[in-house]
């Protein structure tokens, strides 16, 4: 059995990466692979339908290799973040480039799947879009439409880039007061790390365990079927 974890965050060892890795670690599955999309060349899907007959994309980049990784995995965890309150482009491109896994065979059908979304807006803030929910939905809808067994999505509280820019006190459109209210400063908001979010750590561990359980139940079921055949 193999579980594939994918992170669309381009930041090295980011919150998204660490959350995806945590899910993988708790599956109890020996073979896991973590993939960072920024390390791959991936153009957007051309909607040419060139993959319909061959289940292979006509583009000559890393899309087919990533598709093969997803096809060969027994479970898939996708992690992204939410620039402008929707799923980041790299993760969305990855999802759309998994289209060759669909035709005739439905290669992803029945596989356990899960979503991780790091967002500066983990909860609903009045007047701002539901970024975390939108990000998770983007991943969940992919998994639902491919007939996967979506086991859950987790929001990690991330950092609005304004926390790092050094100009937020002089900025008329700083995200800090926009998200945290008028008295918000770099000091009182602070940098959010996954490791300081016990509920999220627990949720990620539980999600990993649920993926492992689903895989083992599927394997038992399959071997049970085989034995009785
Ligand atoms: C250009 C840009 C725009 C962003 N806009 C939003 C936003 O509208 N809403 C939000 O929740 N987070 C926004 N973010 C924050 C990211 O969700 C945040 O940086 C997240 O922590 C990144 O995850 P990572 O630490 O795993 O890389 C934005 C980030 C970037 C780079």
Number of helices: 8
How many angstroms separate the termini?
Answer: 22 Å
User: Residue ranges: pLDDT <50 for 5 or more in a row?
Assistant: 225-229
Strand order, biggest sheet? 2-1-3-4-5
Give the topology string: H per helix, E per strand.
Answer: EHEHEHEHEHHHH
What level of helicity do the residues show? 25-40%
Overall radius of gyration? 19 Å
Alpha-beta content class: alpha/beta
Total number of strands: 5
Protein topology:
Layout: E1 2-7, H1 15-25, E2 31-36, H2 63-72, E3 75-81, H3 89-97, E4 112-119, H4 131-145, E5 149-157, H5 162-165, H6 175-180, H7 186-189, H8 198-228
Parallel strand pairs: 1-2, 1-3, 3-4, 4-5
Helix pairs in contact: 1-8
The structure holds flavin mononucleotide.
Task: Explain how this protein is built.
- The chain has helices at residues 15-25, 63-72, 89-97, 131-145, 162-165, 175-180, 186-189, 198-228, and strands spanning 2-7, 31-36, 75-81, 112-119, 149-157.
- The protein is of the alpha/beta class.
- It has a five-stranded parallel beta sheet, sandwiched between helices.
- Strand 4 (112-119), helix 4 and strand 5 form a beta-alpha-beta unit.
- The relative contact order is 0.17.
- Mean pLDDT is 94; it is low at 225-229.
- Flavin mononucleotide is lined by residues 9, 11, 14-16, 81-85, 118-121, 131, 158-161.
- The site of flavin mononucleotide has 19 residues, from helix 1 and strand 4.
Entry keywords:
229 residues, alpha/beta, 5-stranded parallel sheet, 8 helices, 5 strands, binds flavin mononucleotide
């Amino acid at each position: 059995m193999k579980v594939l974890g994918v992170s669309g965050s381009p930041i090295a060892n980011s919150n998204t990466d660490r959350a995806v890795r945590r899910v993988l670690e708790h599956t109890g599955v020996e073979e896991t692979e973590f993939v960072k999309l920024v390390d791959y060349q991936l153009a957007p899907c051309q909607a040419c339908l060139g993959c319909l007959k061959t289940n292979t994309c006509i583009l000559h980049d890393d899309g087919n290799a990533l598709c093969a990784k997803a096809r060969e995995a027994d479970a898939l965890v996708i992690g992204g973040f939410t620039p402008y309150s929707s799923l980041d482009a790299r993760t969305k491109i990855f999802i759309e480039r998994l289209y060759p896994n669909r035709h005739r065979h439905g290669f992803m059908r029945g596989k356990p799947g899960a979503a991780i979304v790091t967002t500066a807006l983990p909860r609903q803030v009045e007047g701002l879009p539901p970024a975390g929910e939108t990000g998770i939905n983007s991943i969940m809808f992919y998994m639902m439409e491919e007939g996967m067994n979506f086991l859950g999505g987790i929001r990690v509280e991330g950092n609005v880039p304004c926390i790092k820019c050094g100009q937020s006190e002089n900025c008329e459109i700083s995200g800090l007061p926009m998200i945290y209210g008028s008295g918000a400063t770099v000091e009182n908001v602070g940098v959010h790390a996954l490791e300081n979010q016990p509920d999220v750590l627990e949720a990620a561990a539980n999600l990993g365990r649920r993926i492992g359980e689903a895989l083992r139940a599927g394997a038992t079921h399959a071997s049970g079927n085989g034995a009785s055949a």
